[in-house]
Amino acid sequence: MAIASPVEQIKERVSLIDLIGQRVRLLKSGRNFKGLCPFHNEKTPSFYVFPDRDGYHCFGCSQHGDVFTWVMQTEHVDFGEALRQLAERAGVQLTSRQARGVEDERRGRLHEVNAAAVRYFQSMLFTPQGAPALRYLDERGLTRATIEAFQLGWAPDSWDSLLTRLAQDGYTQDELATAGLAVERETEGHYDRFRGRITFPIHDARGETIGFGGRGLGDAQPKYLNSSDSPIFTKGSALYALDVARAAIRKEGVAIIVEGYMDALAAHQAGIANVVAALGTALTEEHLNMLKRLAPRVVLALDADAAGDAAALRTLEVVRATYGKIALPVADRRGLVRLRYDQVLDVRVARLPVGKDPDDVIRKSPELFRQLVTEARPILEVLIDAELARAGADPIARGQAADAVLDVVKDLPNPVVADQFTRLLAERAAVDYEALRLRLHDLRRAARRRVGPAPAVREAATPEPEPMRDWLTFEEFVKTRIASNTEAARPVLHDLSPDDFYRADARAIFDAWQPLLAGSEPPGGDDLVAVLDGPLAEHAAWIVAWGAALPAAETDELVALVTHLRMLNYRREIAMIELRQRDGERPVDAVEREGARLLELITQVRHLERLPGGRLTRPWREVFRAEARLGPLRTVARERRPAALDQPPPPLEEAAS
Q1: Which residues contact 621 (CB under 8 A, 6 or more apart)?
Q2: Residue 35 backbone dihedrals phi, psi, to 5 degrees
Q3: pLDDT digits (tens, 9 = 90+) for 622-637
Q4: Residues 636 and 649 sit within 8 Å (Cβ to Cβ)
Q5: Other residues' Cβ atoms within 10 Å of the Cβ of residue 113
Q6: Which of 85, 94, 136, 128 minimizes the C-alpha distance to 6?
Q7: In the 8-state DSSP scheme, what is residue 338?
Q8: 8 A C-beta contact, residue 554 and residue 464
């Protein structure tokens, strides 16, 4: 059984009726309870507790909330103290988050070291020592604007020029070695890693310098050299120019991957801004995980030769590792958001003219390069053609080629896509489709047999931690999208406050996030977790991680999410008022007050429904349609007056937790 965070364990174990009943005399009213409000003076009960929703609401003074809000309001404490009190009452163990201060300071120092190295290398490029490098860049067609925009530089052909210069700024040799800029000698001391090389700063998605690539001139070997791995840089998970390409990748819906730094620079200089480069390595799962959040399609710009085919097929094995890991959000009839993992990253191969690399093609004709990208073929189609070409006319070899293709097809999570490639294989191989379909079935069955039953767990083994739940409430989903897209969320943050969130823990988390989100630099996921402690930090870490498999969000989507969050809150209050209207023991002034509030809420809902929804992706339209079907609330926008409810509404997105 999956469990949630300590916050949710507390909500499960602490009875709101018992907790409030210690202060308020509650009377049964249908499925709910009512009593005199403890927050204002009244003679007729307008304070209601809804056990099905684990919440309370006063229709006189509008105070409302859950178990945490109750303790905060009655004990006059903050959320942290309310959490500690309720955890003790519920018998829930609270754990403190690990200290992050020292590690954050260390990583920040490494970013500073790299930034200082960028400034030094840039300054050296425009000195007499850097003249050969500047001449080479000019011969490769790079303009001064491109050189400066991408912060290209020159590392002098010296064993210690960078060490000496950065020591003047207070950076130690050990710090440069940790950053991958210096190498430790076998005897004593260190020497510069980059010597006599053009330097290409490598940035993370936030624009922080995390490492360097260096190209030697003349016969220098190796021709290209990268920073060694460090706490902030791993060659297998970094992409050159990603920081400047990410906006264009989102806009175009396509990420183009080239092999070298110069290829990427030529593309950006020609206005093809959705291009990144691998750092002289084969693509990794980490690379694709980064790109799948930005765009649904990746195009590999490869040479039209055997080496290009080999590179494409190596990438295919990496693509297979992403199967079942690419998600789309969907909503059930209660409006709870889940992830559906049946999507496949659309990886395609653009075949360049023989003997030409992207830099050559782009410098001659940027339009030709764009056309080749547009005509790129799915990587599975490349596999089909490569396997059949290798097999030739030999019947046995062609059967083996078909098996090699079907072995990949069998793992596709979407059966419709799998069927399409099976039909393409049948057409290209001139084989009966039904024969291939039966063979595919056999391969899948054999794969299931190989997996076999799960191994028995020995009694002495430590039990695995139980997984978090696999769904989010709508307001949790709003937070996870903001946390994963802090830069795109900036335009909506000035109009969003903790009061827009219904649950006390959701308000506490967003309240702690606000200063970071309003800062000059967009915070990362670690930053958003670090400002919290205990269960709230654990819950925030889960919220941040939950959306990692989702594509990146545009501002329009986030605006629509906030609009629907407010609409959901209005509908929740409408439902509560309608429940209240079922109670006949109400004074006239309460009826009039509730009627006026109901009309105001319905007006607000209709206003929000008329607002432009922005560019919503298809799955989000489904989410909002599902939210609009939340029981009796689906009639809110169409009714001239609110309809009486035959039964309490089904659990709304927050109550279901």
Answers
A1: none
A2: -170, 175
A3: 555 544 444 333 222 2
A4: no
A5: 24
A6: 94
A7: E
A8: no
Q: Structural domains in the chain?
A: 6-90 (3.90.580.10), 106-233 (3.90.980.10), 242-450 (3.40.1360.10), 471-635 (1.10.860.10)
Residue with tokens 């069998």: 410
Rounded Cα–Cα distance for residues 201 and 120 (Å): 12
The tokens for 37 are 């409000």
What predicted TM-score, i.e. pTM, was given to this entire model?
Answer: 0.69
Q: Which two tokens stand for residue 228?
A: 């060694």
DSSP run (H or E) holding 276: strand 275-277
Number of H helices, E strands in the chain: 27, 19
Burial class of residue 416 (count of CB atoms within 10 Å of its CB; 0-12, 13-18, 19+) = exposed
Half-sphere exposure of 366 (CA within 13 A, CB side): 11
Q: Are 220 and 175 in contact (CB under 8 A)?
A: no
**What gap in Å lies between CA 394 and CA 406, rounded to an integer?**
18
CA distance from start to end of the chain: 15
**Read out DSSP for 181-214?**
SEEE-SSSSEEES--SEEEEEEE-TTS-EEEEEE
Backbone angles phi, psi at 617, to 5 degrees: -75, 160
pLDDT in tens, 149-203: 999 999 999 999 999 999 999 999 989 998 999 998 877 789 999 999 999 999 9
Task: Classify burial at 287, counting beta carbons within 10 Å of its beta carbon; exposed 0-12, middle 13-18, buried 19 or more.
Answer: buried
In angstroms, the CA 508 to CA 69 distance is 10
User: What torsion, rounded to 10 degrees, do the Cα atoms 410, 416, 419, 421 define?
Assistant: -80
**Span 228-261, pLDDT tens digits:** 988 889 888 899 999 999 889 988 989 999 988 9
